[in-house]
Amino acid sequence: MMQVKEREDSVPQATAAEADPGPDLSLRRCIVTRDSLPKDRLIRFVLGPEGEVVPDLAGKLPGRGVWVKAERPVLEEAIKKNAFAKAFKAPAKVPADFAQRVVVLLERRIVDLLGLARRSGAVDTGFEKVEAALQRGRVTLLIEASDAAAEGRAKLARQAPPGVEIWAPLAAEALGRAIGKDHAVHVAIGPGGLADRLKTALRRYSGLNRRGSSARVGDPAGRPPRGSRTGSATGPRSETTETE
Description:
four-stranded mixed sheet; disordered C terminus; three-stranded antiparallel sheet; about 240 residues; 8 helices; 2 domains; Hypothetical Cytosolic Protein, Chain: A
């Protein structure tokens, strides 16, 4: 069984984050639940220059960081129990509406990453184009408008092969603006580093935007998408650190 190693020293982040576009399966420990989980199921926080707690959504901010499970109740417990100050061993300023602020930042990150994906040519939009991309096996991530008709979403979901994650984080108007259109209902993202970063942001957003569990948005009923990781990812993982 893997041994969990804790350390209090700082570990540089930016180089690894920039060099490896793929998913990072190394584990980190939540300061609230003490669960050791993959990074995409937690959020890293650092202390700002004035002692304020800052979410490090891109994983590039310098300094010592602590990790909190990407679930709304867990983050709210961290705020309530002053867990950040205890973990940093220093005064930590956290506003009362901090959890909602993190949700807004995650939504903004999803929008920004969708814009980057569009500019890089990794996006297909519209039912027919998305359907064709799925049939060609060139889709790793399917993003549906949250207010889209269930029938169309279900039809594309049935054609998605194992491994394709399906999410519905934004309404059609907001999803369209993110990719430079008036509205968008079906958006397919091809494989690559941008898709991996989008998946991470979407997983975190799902957890923080819900009052209960952080189940994936796989279909209109909220079941996990076929082929997506459910928190027990396979493959090699590096040894765990609680802070970095």
